[in-house]
Write a structure and sequence with these properties.
The complex is a heterodimer. Chain A is an all-alpha fold. In chain A, about 65% of the residues lie in helices and about 0% in strands. Chain B is of the alpha/beta class. Classes of the chains: A mainly alpha, B alpha/beta. Chains A and B meet through α1 and α3 of A and α1 of B.
């Protein structure tokens, strides 16, 4: 991860998938969670390099998939973040910094809730 | 004529691996074969190749978007009847209206509910099955259960086109039950119908790859793909003998016979068309009748010879 990576903004309060008890989903939820650091890095890199198109694509994908993996908060936050990016004009990074922080925080919380995180 | 009971195929076209994994998990256990494509180009290629019953199509694809891909699918004869369900995180009503107006049959919003996803896919597959069954029934002959003339005409054109494209040989045979009017007059129409059913059964008992149709009345058409005239003659000769040897309940001494005219693509001069092949096979059949019936004649060679000698 690069030096620009945002750390969780508050004490990590894990969130868990609504489908944690669904055997058919267990494996892919773990894959989804294990890929979160990579996605956070992509989001942050896109944001800081001003690559709005790539950022929107990642956010859009997480908006579509988050709820499907049992993380409605990921979908709702991605939706809010995407909306803010689309509404923002010239200074879009400045206008969406807070939304980025909130979204990344949600991703960190989901990651903290993964089965092998050590959290109990 | 067996109806298609193979496992239906569903092709998911979405550029997100997250969605493919989710679909795979959620549709596991359903009676379907799930295929995936991560770009519109790959999706179009797979739709043509796999001929899925249903395509789950993301709107926000890069390059060619979902709407553009749907247009391509609907423009192509090979893919226009595939049922397309849009899956999208877009909730704009106008996008839904646009998609449905363009020919999509349904719309699923991401993130999707697993039960709703399954129900919508099942519903689409059920509709596709019924549509295909109706299409197939409309192409079957009511008495014999063979393909009907409408299907025969379409299929012959298609087979000739394939034969030309792949430089393959194709044999066409026409079969006519001998003195059928006399059979009808002597034994009655129900017996005549029984003869047609039995002959149809014998003709369709040949090789599985052969296409057997009721051409009209007591005449049948047989299309032998990738088969030359020599092999076509052998096959039809066996069928002719089988018809001659068939037993007729209540009429143990009766012998029903049929005449065959055969031609293949190799022997035709000029344009290779369904009309030319039918004409050649019909001429051969006429010669078989002239020759005393109950025989196989290959008019194509005779036709070429005749043309060569002009």
């Amino acid at each position: 991860m690069n030096s620009n990576q945002l750390k969780p903004t508050k004490k990590t309060n894990p969130i868990f998938s609504d489908f944690s008890d669904d055997d058919s989903m267990g494996k892919i939820i773990q894959i989804f969670l294990n890929e979160i650091p990579k996605r956070i890095e992509l989001i942050e890199n896109s944001f800081h390099s001003g690559n709005k198109e790539q950022l929107c694509k990642i956010i859009h994908q997480l908006k579509g998939a988050g709820g499907g993996y049992g993380f409605k908060l990921i979908t709702s936050n991605a939706m809010a973040f995407e909306k803010k990016i689309k509404q923002a004009e010239d200074n879009w990074q400045q206008a969406t910094t807070k939304a980025l922080e909130e979204f990344v925080d949600i991703l960190h919380r989901a990651y903290a809730g993964r089965a092998d995180s050590g959290d109990t | 004529m067996a109806e298609n009971k193979s496992i239906p195929k569903v092709l998911a076209i979405d550029d997100s691996e997250l969605i493919h994994r989710l679909l795979e998990a959620r549709l596991q256990g359903e009676n379907l074969e799930l295929h995936s494509a991560t770009s519109s180009e790959e999706g179009l290629k797979k739709a043509k190749l796999l001929q899925p019953e249903v395509v789950l199509l993301d709107i926000g694809l890069e390059g060619m978007n979902g709407f553009e891909l749907l247009t391509k699918l609907k423009e192509d004869n090979e893919t226009q009847n595939i049922a397309v369900i849009f899956i999208s995180a877009t909730v704009e009503p106008m996008d839904r209206v646009r998609g449905l107006d363009m020919g999509a049959i349904d719309f699923i919003t991401k993130p999707f509910d697993a039960l709703e996803l399954k129900a919508r896919v099942r519903s689409a597959l059920r509709t596709q099955y019924l549509v295909k069954m109706l299409e197939q029934r409309a192409q079957l002959d009511g008495l014999t259960g063979l393909w009907n003339r409408r299907y025969f005409d379409q299929r012959l054109e298609q087979e000739i086109s394939e034969a030309k494209r792949h430089k393959r040989v194709l044999t066409l045979a026409l079969c006519d039950v001998d003195r059928f009017k006399r059979l009808n007059d002597q034994f009655g129409h129900p017996f005549g119908d029984m003869v047609l059913e039995k002959v149809a059964q014998i003709l369709s008992g040949g090789r599985t790859s052969d296409i057997v149709c009721r051409y009209g009345g007591e005449e049948f058409g047989l299309i032998f793909s990738s088969t030359n005239i020599e092999r076509g003659r052998e096959v039809t000769e066996r069928l002719r003998v089988a018809i001659e040897e068939a037993a007729w309940p209540g009429n143990p001494d009766l012998v029903v016979t049929a005449s065959f005219g055969v031609c293949d693509t190799e022997c035709l001069d000029g344009d290779l068309t369904p009309e030319a092949m039918l004409k050649a096979a019909d001429m051969a059949l006429y010669k078989a009748k002239q020759n005393g019936r109950n025989c196989v004649k290959a008019a194509v060679r005779a036709l070429k010879k005749k043309q060569d000698t002009i």
